[in-house]
């Protein structure tokens, strides 16, 4: 900033050219200028040092700018000699041209004055009246010409003065752009070198390599470097790297089980594992060759019943988003009347059922004898439910109170799923899944969502329960927050962030998963998920790593050790693992998915009409069916009708509640049809659980208890 600009800055601004930069400890920075002091805190010592370096560089630049602005002798910021010569040459040319214009002006003034004298003499001569008038007119025009010439010369002189005044400012701007370009070129060159180095390392990597993953247990930040080395039986040839347990990053050194021989005597607090426990022939953990994994999986998923593989293409309707959204800021999303233009032709109950797309992970988990191995598959399953959201920015239909959705795949895939909307405000859905392959899953999810102008936060509340029949292992976890960005301007995109803690309440095993939020400045892989599986004693057994939109891998820990202590007094941990194995990988989207709401193969079948379902099933919802058919205008009319019908039912219940209160009677309100509220024995929470009767009613086709909601 110039001195004039500094005089008009915001209150609280510190002039870096006179500021004092100091550090208090490993993470704190003190920035002071006279009577004003700022205390800044970085996430880590590395980040603090980066900030200090950047501030010092900015301070040096501010000092140079101040000196240049106060020095009228012509000193400028460092620039190349050619730039200075070019600038001086331009100014010299302008000055020369101005001198030429001044000379021409003097000549014009001189000759103009002589012309005026001659014309005056002609006026004094005794000429006819008509000639005198013409001479007078010529004299006036000569005067105007002289005045105009003088004005032109003055304008040229002002232009030159302005060019000289702003020459240094232009040069500083040019120099800044040049520095930015050079810095960008250097960065690109450095990235290219690193890319080539990584390619060479990958091509020539032996059995021992390194990989970097991340886990969060606190909000501190850390930094790690890549490990280098080759496979060797000698301890000194394997490099180990420390990582704080409270940092969001740690290092795993991946060893070849054929070469893994280590006594652990040289590691303090080491806990050993056995490489023979991690074999490629394991009946549960599939080979790391993902192609064979997908082939075997696809064979298991071949349906016995032919189901649809496409739906009508999404119409291209234009809509003024801001005209609808500007009055919605800060409101609960479920209370905002929204046209179907923002929806996808599925209800929230169907989206909840879509979590079962990778149910085979639970089928494999049911075969695990080890609870920690089983935890790995449960963790992969919890992540897989987000894979369908990467392109799914449209909003599902809010279910009507009493609406249900069944997914009966008992003969094909071995499970039956039932969802029911058990509350409208706040919206809550109960879900129950029974599998003949050894597991049962149930949950009650309440969706809390807030529109904040630029983004939409979706916060699922409620616990997910999973129990395996043979072992009795009971797992509980909760979902992370989903955020839809660029609601008003730009392309919509979705991100998942937060932490999931999966707890086996029987064995007390735990898995901590971290969903790293997207950051433009982060070097991490986008949509990264990392975690550690540990037993009841806190001993780590597996490292989980991957992304929530692509795949999850599992690495068995063979050694863990306590390293040195950080400056904050936190103990560092080092893990050595065997090579990772892919537990889950996302299925490719079907052809033309971009025109079918980016639905997966399972999602395309969820709203497929089926016979014998309950009259409250989402497949029978008319507005949703009209939207899927591309008749959006009719769908909007039908949607308003259904919502008004539901509001009338709610007003009737409110009136009944007031009447019961006046009579001193109890009013139970809405009672779910297929679920009942109970206190969960594990978590102690009040949750809706399946009470039975739905599938029996389906067999008998007795839906007399179902309400008329459509």
Outline the structure in words.
The protein is α+β, with helices and mostly antiparallel strands. Among the domains are: 15-65, no CATH class; 309-597, Porin (Beta Barrel). It has 13 helices and 26 strands. The strands form four sheets. A six-stranded antiparallel barrel has the order 13-14-17-18-16-15. A three-stranded antiparallel sheet has the order 1-2-3, covered by helices on one side. Strand 13 and strand 14 (455-461) form a beta hairpin.
Short description:
This protein is α+β, with helices and mostly antiparallel strands. The chain has helices at 3-6, 45-70, 81-124, 129-203, 290-300, 321-325, 348-353, 360-365, 371-384, 601-606, 622-628, 632-662, 694-700, and strands at 20-23, 28-33, 36-41, 209-213, 243-244, 250-255, 271-272, 343-347, 395-397, 404-409, 415-423, 428-435, 439-451, 455-461, 463-468, 474-478, 481-485, 493-504, 510-515, 528-534, 540-547, 551-565, 571-578, 581-585, 675-679, 686-690.
Question: If strands are numbered along the chain, what order do they take across the biggest sheet?
Answer: 13-14-17-18-16-15
Low-pLDDT residue intervals, each spanning 5 or more residues: 71-79, 206-249, 261-283, 286-303
Percent of residues in helices comes to: 25-40%
Q: How many helices?
A: 13
Assigned CATH class of the domain at 309-597 = Mainly Beta
Rounded mean pLDDT score: 78
Radius of gyration: 37 Å
Based on CA inertia axes, which overall geometry fits? elongated
Q: What's the story with the biggest beta sheet? A: 6 strands, antiparallel, barrel
Number of strands: 26
Instruction: Provide the β-strand percentage band.
Output: 15-25%
Secondary-structure-derived class? alpha+beta
Spatial separation of the terminal alpha carbons: 65 Å
What is the correct CATH architecture of the domain at 309-597?
Beta Barrel
Provide the CATH topology of the domain at 309-597. Porin
């Amino acid at each position: 900033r110039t001195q004039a600009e500094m005089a008009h800055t915001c209150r609280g601004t510190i002039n870096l050219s006179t500021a004092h930069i100091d550090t208090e400890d490993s993470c704190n920075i003190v920035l002071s200028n006279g009577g004003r002091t700022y205390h800044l805190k970085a996430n880590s010592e590395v980040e603090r040092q980066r900030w200090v370096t950047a501030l010092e560089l900015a301070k040096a630049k501010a000092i140079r700018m101040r000196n240049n602005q106060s020095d009228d002798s012509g000193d400028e910021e460092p620039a190349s000699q050619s730039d200075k010569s070019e600038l001086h040459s331009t100014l010299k040319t302008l000055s020369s041209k101005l001198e030429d214009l001044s000379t021409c002006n003097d000549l014009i003034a001189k000759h103009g004055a002589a012309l005026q004298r001659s014309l005056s003499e002609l006026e004094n001569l005794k000429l006819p009246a008509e000639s005198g008038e013409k001479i007078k007119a010529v004299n006036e025009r000569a005067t105007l010409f002289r005045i105009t010439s003088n004005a032109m010369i003055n304008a040229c002189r002002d232009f030159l003065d302005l060019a000289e005044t702003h020459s240094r400012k232009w040069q500083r701007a040019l120099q800044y752009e040049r520095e930015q370009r050079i810095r960008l070129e250097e960065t690109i060159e450095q990235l290219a070198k690193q890319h080539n180095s990584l390619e060479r390392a990958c091509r020539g990597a032996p059995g021992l390599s390194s990989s970097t993953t991340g886990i969060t247990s606190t909000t501190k930040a850390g930094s790690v470097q890549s490990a280098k080395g080759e496979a060797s039986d000698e301890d000194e040839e394997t490099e180990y790297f420390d990582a704080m347990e409270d940092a969001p990053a740690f290092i795993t050194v991946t060893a070849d089980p054929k070469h893994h021989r280590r006594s652990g005597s040289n590691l303090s607090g080491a806990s050993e594992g056995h490489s023979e426990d991690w074999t490629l022939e394991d009946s549960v953990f599939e080979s790391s060759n993902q192609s064979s994994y997908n082939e075997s999986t696809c064979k298991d998923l071949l349906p016995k019943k032919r189901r649809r593989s496409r739906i009508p293409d999404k119409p291209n309707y234009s809509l003024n988003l801001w005209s609808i959204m500007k009055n919605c800021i800060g409101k609960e999303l479920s209370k905002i009347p929204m046209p179907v233009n923002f929806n996808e032709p599925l209800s929230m109950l169907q989206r909840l059922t879509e979590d079962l797309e990778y149910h085979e992970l639970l089928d494999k988990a049911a075969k695990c004898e080890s609870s920690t191995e089983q935890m790995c598959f449960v963790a992969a399953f919890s992540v897989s439910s987000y894979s369908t959201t990467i392109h799914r920015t449209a909003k599902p239909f809010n279910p009507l109170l009493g609406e249900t959705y069944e997914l009966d795949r008992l003969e094909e895939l071995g499970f039956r799923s039932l969802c029911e909307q058990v509350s409208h405000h706040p919206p809550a859905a109960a879900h129950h899944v029974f599998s003949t392959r050894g597991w049962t899953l149930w949950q009650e999810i309440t969706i809390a969502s807030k529109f904040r102008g630029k983004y939409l936060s979706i916060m699922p509340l409620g616990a997910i329960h999973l129990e395996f029949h043979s072992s009795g292992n009971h797992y509980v976890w909760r979902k992370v927050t989903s955020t839809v960005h660029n609601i008003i301007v730009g392309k919509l995109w979705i991100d998942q962030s937060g932490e999931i803690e999966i707890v086996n309440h029987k064995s007390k095993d735990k898995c901590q998963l971290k969903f790293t939020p997207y950051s433009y400045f982060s070097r991490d892989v986008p949509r990264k998920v990392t975690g550690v599986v540990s037993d009841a004693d806190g001993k780590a057994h597996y490292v989980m790593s991957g992304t929530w939109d692509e795949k999850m891998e599992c690495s068995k820990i063979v050694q863990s050790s306590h390293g040195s202590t950080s400056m904050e007094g936190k103990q560092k941990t080092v893990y050595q693992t065997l090579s990772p194995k892919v537990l889950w990988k996302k299925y490719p989207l079907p052809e033309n998915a971009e025109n079918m709401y980016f639905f997966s193969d399972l999602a395309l079948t969820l709203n497929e009409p089926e016979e014998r379902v309950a009259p409250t099933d989402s497949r029978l919802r008319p507005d949703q069916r009209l939207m899927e058919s591309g008749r959006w205008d009719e769908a909007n009319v039908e949607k308003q009708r259904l919502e008004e019908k539901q509001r009338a039912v709610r007003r009737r219940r409110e009136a009944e509640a007031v009447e019961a209160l006046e009579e001193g009677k109890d009013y139970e309100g809405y009672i779910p049809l297929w679920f009942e509220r109970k206190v969960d024995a594990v978590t102690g929470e009040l949750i809706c659980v399946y009470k039975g009767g739905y599938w029996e009613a389906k067999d008998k086709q007795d839906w007399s208890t179902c309400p008329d909601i459509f």
